[in-house]
Amino acid sequence: MLSALTVGAAGMVIVVRNLLHALLFLILSFVGVAGLYITLSADFIAVVQVLIYAGAIAVLMIFSVMLTPLSDRDNAEGLLRLPALVLSGLVATGIAFVAIETDWQVTSESSFENTSVAIGEALLSPFVLPFEIASVLLVAAMIGAIVLVRED
Amino acid sequence: MEAVTQQIPLEHFLVLSAILFSLGVYGVLTRRNAVLILMSIELMLNAASVNMVAFAAYTSPEQFIGIIFAIFIITIAAAEAGLALAIILRIFRYRKTANVDEIDELKW
Q: Is the backbone of residue A114 left (phi > 0), alpha (psi -120 to 50) or beta?
């Protein structure tokens, strides 16, 4: 049910003609992925998904769609339609085949408990260096975006 | 309540994320509007982080490495979306278009 929502909305992003409608379907797909995280009982990452993807990135995209005028808002297709269809079909069947055929080492334990406490401890003890690098990257991206869009 | 990992096999999540990823590939290859290409890239990143969280939940739920990876993926995606949209706005200001096949100064 939830996965049908996610995949259906993602498909509509690709199919639909209007750019703004595609954006709304993309937000629906993000919310569906957040629901999938909740089914996997990863609650913290679900909240982060809704906040950052369905909130921040969606608002950014809406801004950029609105700042480009109406004439440019059609969702035209390039010439690569058939090769792209073949390639993406191959990618999907390849990944799905490997995923089904492989014998995954699934544990019988129940899934995550108390995720936010454990995530906080993991981020600040074994993963400090990637955490700090990610924050530096965010600052760099923010400054870069400001410099890029500034009038000069 | 019984855990979801006993009810749904792991392969369902993997196949779902494969479908999501290939939809993203199709979108990147066929669309001409740069904003829509960016949206398709976000779809592919989402598929990858669904995979990460699914593996973490099914194979080693006592460690949180998969979730940490998903958090970093979301961070990178946010930075990338901000920068890419800034570049698109800049291109639009100069060229009055956001279609990637009309921006061909570098092609000789």
A: left
The verdict on A116 touching B (C-beta cutoff 8 Å) is no
B103 lies in some domain: no
Residue A29 contacts B where some CB pair is shorter than 8 Å: yes
ipTM: 0.83
Count of domains in chain B? Answer: 1
Q: Is the pLDDT of residue A96 over 60?
A: yes
Q: pLDDT by residue (tens digit) across A100-109?
A: 887 777 766 6
Q: CB count, 10 Å around CB of A131?
A: 17
- Interfacial A residues in 66-105 facing B (CB < 8 Å): 67-68, 72, 75-78, 80-81, 83-85, 87-89, 91-92, 95-96, 99-100, 104-105
* CA of B50 vs chain A CAs: smallest distance (Å): 7
| Domain housing B91 | 10-95
Could you tell me the pTM of the whole model?
A: 0.84
A93 contacts: CB under 8 Å, gap ≥ 6:
none
